[in-house]
Amino acid sequence: MTVPEALFTGDARPYAGGDPYADYRTSDFPFAQLVDLADRRLGAGVMAANDEFFADRENLLKPGAAEFDPERFGHKGKIMDGWETRRRRGTGADRPHPTDEDHDWALVRLGAPGVIRGIVVDTAHFRGNYPRAVSVEGTSLPGSPSPEELLGDGVKWTVLVPRTAIGGHAANGFAVDVEQRFTHLRVNQHPDGGIARLRVHGEVAPDPAWLGVLGTFDLVALENGGRVEDASDRFYSPATNTIRPGRSHKMDDGWETRRRRDKGNDWIRYRLVEQAEIRAVEIDTAYLKGNAAGWATLSVRDGSTGAWTEILPRTRLQPDTNHRFVLEAAVVATDVRLDIFPDGGISRLRVFGGLTEGGAARLRER
Fold first, then answer.
1. Residues 6+ apart with CB under 8 A from 176
2. Cβ proximity of 257 and 233 under 8 Å
3. d(C-alpha 242, C-alpha 281), whole Å
4. pLDDT tens for each residue of 103-142
5. For 69-94, b where at least 16 C-beta lie within 10 A, e where not — what string?
6. Closest CA to 174 of 200, 192, 193
7. 224-268 pLDDT per residue, tens
8. Half-sphere exposure of 54 (CA within 13 A, CB side)
């Protein structure tokens, strides 16, 4: 079942100058704290679309909010920061309007397969040229299927968002309650129009066979099923940045807290993909030079109610440096807590090891 979280309908007013987001319609979606499975930084992509006459399909998954330049035009018309198709027409002068079944579509490969908890179809800046309705379907296929294979006979598509009217210049959110693992989406707009961004929030469900072959891997990485459970501070940037793929390439691609004026410290609590044996750790402060954390400790626990055990004592961190620590013996854990002193930030945390037999079995069951 899919429940609209914030349903906006109808046209937005024409742009009248000034801040284009001043009349933007949005809401706080509870599922938005979960990872965006369609994040290009995780490897997501828009594989195909039946039409992208006015604006490229790849814009759907760009990180950050859509931009609007009222003076930007090309030889095809207004250039929009989103995916926009041409206006559909009927079959002739006697039938000038498209049928109820006519629609445009785009195929999206999720960056990490997972269970979807919410979808946001963002029509920012599409004020009179947004689709009147949208629908979203999902499927799960192994390997790297081509667009032709995804559109072929025999592929089972599950409705995640039924055909629903939406509004222009708005973040249209839908909570999804389908307990299945998906790898690809088919996004439909009825009958045509433009969508600025697509966000697909959920929980990563990695392939246990792949992780088993790897043996030792990053147990807390987003793409492997790790996640941030909580953090003391998200003032400058989200804690989830610390477990994104690759090294950070700029300061705001990590986690940075506000300046503390008390005697406390900041921290992040993580959940590993499953119960595992930890053998090594990396704490990276890349691009954090005058604002890197001064010291760090790392603690673990086995089970959500277990006691925390320190595995890395308070250790001095250097700015703009990747720090590597090999544990004397493997440690079994399900959760990790990173404490930094007194404040500042890190860019990445890597926790290397392998699943226990119990952890691997539970992952296979999921």
1. 2, 116, 117, 118, 119, 160, 161, 202
2. yes
3. 13
4. 999 999 999 999 999 999 999 999 999 999 999 999 999 9
5. eeeeeeeeebebbbbbbeebeeeeee
6. 200
7. 999 999 999 988 899 999 999 999 888 889 999 999 999 999 999
8. 22
